[in-house]
Amino acid sequence: MSVRRLSGRHVAAAVTAFALLAAAGQPAAAAVRHPLAQPPSVQPSQSQPLQNQSTPAQSQAQAQAQARGQGQGAVKDPVLDGLRGIVAEDGWPGALASVEARGGRTRDLVAGVAQLGTHRAVPVDGQVRIGSNTKTFVSVVVLQLVAEKKVVLDAPVETYLPGLLRGDGIDGRKITVRQLLQHTSGLPNYTDYLALENESDLHRYFEPRDLLDAALAHPAVFAPGTSWSYSNTNYVVAGLLVEKVTGRPIIEQVTERVIERAGLKHTYFPPVGEEVIRERHPNGYTPEDSGKLLDVTDLDPSWGWAAGQMVATPSDLNEFFTALLNGKLMPAAQLAEMKKTVETTDFIPGARYGLGLMSFPLTCGGLAWGHGGDIPGYETRGGVTGDGRAVQVAVTSLPSTEEQANGVMEFVDMALCATK
């Protein structure tokens, strides 16, 4: 396969988009993007124009858009119309959403096509890479260890990983576990410094220590506890902490403590070397400088590791966040700590960050909780409310315009407000 040079905006900055932050090279509008904040057969890479090319297949996909318990009547459906709208208006190749109303009625909706240049429909509730949603799973494991009195939230990282964090303004004796999970540690963001210059680099394997070393070569962003800045490095350290305390791999701990406990059937943490998405899934794309889309469905997600490596379906994400907020994954005391939030910067107005969990205001009133994530190929957004509503949406490319970036979060807000 020929190697295309991928610009920092589309690879290095796309990596940084785990955070859904305004990152170097990303559109300025990322500042208002919400950080709800990474395949059976290998699909060949193929570039396609950014504009929507899916009109015939989109009709087919929409005709197959089923909801568990939803009929095929002619009643106006603002949520389905909204999903179709972001594909038609913002040029996403495909989109898939899961919407849960109070009482548990769930609808799984799709729009667009699963693969550009084909008429293949987006699989209903298909698997996607979920990027930084991984952080919430890892935070749950850490907080379970807190409940088991194996970790103390306000203890220094040095207690568990002696000598690991040293650098210019960086000292593990002064950074607490809470500050890692809350992004108040001041650790530099390793995804700002990864050397991913070519398409072939998306298949490179990174050890967790490679990611940490990339960060520690740079100075601290601020003194611990004095500010807030989203850094994927925090969750690499959290993953290493889990492994040190438990003596077991983070993949195993997330699987046994969270995925299995929550009853998630289509969610997994890919093992070392696995580049494919296991079950039915739409292809994922990344925009190139030319405006065309590069197929990046298959890649090595190791540079996400505990910050963004996982795969799930939209309905599984709803089930996970609902179980979490209903207290099924940790004791009440630890959930209360998780929901203690601080003010954020570079996010949507009113958004606040807890311990791997984010709250954001809805236009119809009240708060939603979630996380979200970006990884080359997929962007996921969503939220759950205290009264039982839940929405997750995934689109099959990273955004290249402000309108695309804002449109997905606007859909989440609309869907939560329209769902009763």
TrEMBL record:
Disordered as annotated region, ranges: 32-76
Biased composition (Low complexity): 43-69
Domain Beta-lactamase-related: 86-401
Signal sequence residues: 1-30
Residue ranges the record marks as coiled coil: none
Pfam families reported in the protein's UniProt record: Beta-lactamase (PF00144)
Keyword Phosphoprotein: no
One annotated GO molecular function: hydrolase activity
Keywords tagged on the record: Hydrolase, Signal
Entry protein name: Serine hydrolase
Annotated source species: Winogradskya consettensis
Phylogenetic placement of the source organism: Bacteria, Bacillati, Actinomycetota, Actinomycetes, Micromonosporales
